[in-house]
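Dear Dr. H.,

I hope your travels went smoothly. While you were away I took the liberty of generating a structure for the chain from your last submission, since the lab meeting agenda had it listed for discussion. I wanted you to have the full record in hand beforehand rather than looking at slides cold. The sequence, exactly as received, is reproduced here:
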Amino acid sequence: MKDLIIIGGGAAGFFAASEVLRQKPNARIILLEKTGKILSKVKISGGGRCNVTHHCFDAERLIQFYPRGNPWLSAVFERFHVEDTLNWFKRFGVTIVAESDGRMFPDTNQSQTIIDAMVKGAQGKGFLLRLHAAVKNISSVDEGFAVALENGEVIQTQQVLVASGGSPTGCGFSFLSEYRFTIVPPVPSLFTFNVPKHPWIDLMGLSIPRATVGIINTDLSFSGPVLVTHWGFSGPAVLKLSAFGARLLHNQQYRYSFYLDLLPDLTISEVERAMVDFQTLNPKKKPDQSMLFPLPKRMWEKICEESGLSLYFNWAEAGKRKIQEAARLLKKRVFQAEGKTTYKEEFVTSGGIHLDEVNNKTCQSKRFSGLFFAGEVLDVDGITGGFNFQAAWSTAFCASAEIVKKVK
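The corresponding predicted structure, in token form, is as follows:
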């Protein structure tokens, strides 16, 4: 009988294996990965650089970046926080550095650095990695569990850690059917907004340094950089909004209206006044050639085009209505979204094992001793910026700290 079977060869699975082996080097562990690759999300994260965590050392502030999992994660982060993550990788010679926006990467700027550290940590006499080993079901037996593989093989173990990641269709939880866990139906999170017949298609590739994006008829809005794409809109503000609105937008079948506020630090009356004052002082200048606001030139020209200001050869000709229309578009340009697009390859799901059924100090099932969960398989997800990996490291640590108590 094995000491531990870990289901899932991703960030949480390898981290837990490393932690158990650090404390019990001779532990008999099998890590089962259903595909032929390990740590695939680590590999592609951050454009191949791996956004390891976020520079937020206040646990109470950190949980605010998780649409699902707040405040369940409070106890988890008390046991293993961002600083602990940095120290953990430092043991393997990896230095994690912060960028201006708070995201943290290895100083090599290569995700392979993180992969190498995790693989090195999971080395031990009793450790076995098995690829193409899909789990069919788990059942309880005397002194532990029987894990049945799709190929018909059955392995007995004292403890099981489920770190299988999110499941877009929900079928990825079927191997747990015997235990009748409450599964929060998974839906996509961290996606970009699709806009059919895109009215700003000629601006694709343009980055707006700071704007507010909001869902019409809701209180959901976020500010930050916004990127205009050929299919719609992306960027940090859009991705954050998609995370917090994941379930709402799913229920609306991804058909909804959203607005862009291109000048979030000004009121609409202040925007109008700035244009009127500029008009008074510069009557002979051409409106679409006048950079009044901190916007990309092409963006200002688009607003002038849509409001009609670009029709005038000088500001003296522009009437009050055109100025008001330009101000409205600058403060609340509305778009109709239909559909979504996964952000690069960093697919994240909202949903999973209901948190009421898992102890947030040990990440162990409240009903079945010896059965643990870590990472995205839980109904926990964060916004973009390293938060999902931090949740994976922290939940894996809490689970492994409890697992080692039963390893002889």
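Two observations you may find useful: The chain has two domains: 2-188+346-406, 191-342. The chain has a mean pLDDT of 95.

With kind regards,
E. W.
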